[in-house]
Amino acid sequence: MSGLSFAFVLFKYFPHGGLQRDFCKFAREALARGHRVTAYAPDFSALDAELCATRGFEAIAVPRSGFSNHRRDRSFSQNVQRLVKSRLDPTAEARSADRSVDLILGFNKMRGLDAYYAADSCYVAKVAEQRSRLYRLLPRYRTYRSLERAVFARGRRAQVLAISKRELARYRRLHGTEGRRTLLLPPGIEPDRIAAGRTAEQHARLEAAGRDALGLAPTERLLLFLGSGFRKKGLDRALRAFAALPDAVRETTRLLVAGADNGAPFQRLARRLGVYDRVIWSTSGRDDVPACLAATDGLILPAYDENTGTVILEAMLGGVPVLVTENCGYAFYVDQHETGLVCPEPFEQTQLDALTLRLLTDPARERWRANGRAQAEQPIWSGLATAVVDELERLVRDSERERDRVAHPVQGAAR
Q1: Would you list the DSSP string of 340-369?
Q2: What's the whole-number mean pLDDT along residues 146-158?
Q3: Where do the H-state alpha helices sit in 131-196?
Q4: DSSP-derived secondary structure letter, 118
Q5: What pLDDT, in 10s, does the model give residues 328-368?
Q6: Ramachandran assignment for 7, one of left (phi > 0), alpha (psi -120 to 50 degrees), beta (any other)
Q7: DSSP for 4-72, written as a single string
Q8: What pLDDT digit, counting tens, does each position of 399-414 carry?
Q9: Through-space distance between the first and last CA atoms of the chain, rounded to whole angstroms
Q10: Rounded to an integer, what distance in angstroms lies between the CA atom of residue 151 and that of residue 109?
């Protein structure tokens, strides 16, 4: 099924975000099948030039207004709906082969979607667990709750493309989302993040390149915190666990913080903890993540809230022992395949401190590495983009059949 036109909508584009990387993967998969993709976001200035130049792709910057994030997101959502309304209306006179839209896919929760890629955790559940009752009186809460309900409430039309079984269960419980409107997707790990297929020599070269780029001494270990959204992903917890390591371990270990976010509050915390000089700060993101993973002795992700945690699988399949909190959607893979350690809920900092020491020193490390590399040989880890575009095509086919049935009820019944 080729020649369809998809609209992809997201609140924010930046190069190193996991959601944004998925957006690019889905766009490339759709374009490779002969479809058209029109992308809408407030700013595409950092979008990959190769994707922008691909035939069938168009990026449209949509203005937004407001003095707070929730007002800007609501404004953007409204502006996108106005902009694509004529394209989505099959009766509009302006509709033509090159302007029509067969389906609109949202990467954030908003009204008017045909499908939603559920990479974010359940907002209503998160507020109930982490915020006071007074927070629920704020305009911010009312806005984001309304946008979430527009996708998940019973009776809405958007198909939910979920990547976390845990979060999907919460959406169903809190919003009554119908099972027929949901699809649980496979993981989507990029091939260059998986160790399968690398020879020992190739891996050694990649590891050496990573250690050289980071300026590591031959005897130094590397602990990695990777991901944008430092507060949500628990960088403060990771810094405290790093500071709690015994002197002999901490003085021969460096912590790499890599992600696109404001590092200033966490740099101040690192100074107070006395570990600032042992941290390598890459707060604008990095383009050499595969080399950093190859050079890493352990990944730490002590998140407050993490829908899945793609980096967990990227590290695991690269043969890196991992330490994650139980609330991460992909934490169950760590237990299932014995590739590291899971910090249980409810979270306790002292427990994370002890597990961080184990991550770096436990004799089981080689077994964790071997288990991760063995899983990397399985074909199940890179099917996300294929599954998403397959589902978008199915939704369009079903919509066309339904329109045909309504327009020609007798013939539709006969078929």
Answers
A1: EEEEPSSP-HHHHHHHHHHHHH-TTHHHHH
A2: 97
A3: 139-152, 165-175
A4: E
A5: 999 999 999 999 999 999 999 999 999 999 999 999 999 99
A6: beta
A7: -EEEEE-S---TT-HHHHHHHHHHHHHHHTT-EEEEEES--TTS-HHHHTSTTEEEEE-----SSHHHH
A8: 988 877 777 776 555 5
A9: 21
A10: 6
